[in-house]
Amino acid sequence: MLELVFATNNAHKLQEVQAIIEDKFFLKSLADIGCTDDIPETGTTFFENAKQKTDFLVNKYGFFCFGDDSGLEIDALNGEPGVYSARYSGTRDMDKNIGLVLSKLRGVTNRAARFKTVISLYLNEQQYFFEGSIEGVIIDRLRGTSGFGYDPIFIPDGHDQTFAEMSAEQKNSISHRAIAVQKLADFLKHF
Fold first, then answer.
1. What's this model's pTM, rounded to 2 decimal places?
2. What is the Cα–Cα distance from 58 to 166, expressed in whole angstroms?
3. Is the dihedral of CA 56, 32, 66, 91 positive or negative?
4. In a structure prediction context, what are the per-residue pLDDT tens digits for the chain, which is 191 residues long?
5. CA–CA separation, 34 and 162 (whole Å)
6. I want to staple 88 with a disulfide (CB 3.0 to 4.6 A). Which of 27, 81, 109, 187 is the partner?
7. Residues 97 and 85: beta-carbon distance below 8 Å
8. Contact 67, 57 (CB under 8 A)
9. Largest alpha-carbon pair distance within the chain?
10. 101 and 137 in contact (C-beta within 8 Å)?
11. Backbone angles phi, psi at 8, to 5 degrees
12. Is the torsion defined by CA of 155, 72, 75, 180 positive or negative?
């Protein structure tokens, strides 16, 4: 079974990805390989940040690996929070990040937004990229307790529930990360 290091210690992300790829590959987290470094995310695009993660792991550890960068892009905020989604308020406190988004959107009628994920895969001296995106809208109050991040304020197009109101199975079948991870898994099946 192919082993891949996923450049994360986020248990939610690890569970989401493992559920999508099932038992086709054995995933290891940063903790599993003893990596306690703060991997840089200084890029201005999701592609740059995802690539920084795999470059770091390859250069320091030499593992086959993949890293992702994801974020929420809101049309009325000119694509913000974008690559700064995890620290939009200047902290990693998601309550504050969500609060800032909702305060900036107060009175705004255009609530169109999308979640995006870019995955960078390093395998056999090659780098590959996979992208996933899902369109939706931002609501004006939190709904649901599942998921993480901005899930309680995002309703994907064609649905009436936020990501946080959906079961993990529902969300994993349509999410931006699911789309990108499925592309990664399909690629790896034919590698």
1. 0.89
2. 36
3. negative
4. 778 899 998 877 788 788 777 777 788 999 999 999 989 889 999 999 999 999 999 999 998 999 999 999 999 999 999 999 999 999 999 999 999 999 999 999 999 999 999 999 999 899 999 999 999 999 999 999 998 899 999 999 999 999 999 998 899 889 998 899 889 988 887 76
5. 35
6. 81
7. yes
8. yes
9. 52
10. no
11. -155, 155
12. negative
Active site residues: 69
* Site of tokens 């034919």: 190
Asked whether the CA dihedral 132, 84, 88, 76 is positive or negative, the reply is negative
Map tokens 């931002």 to a residue: 138
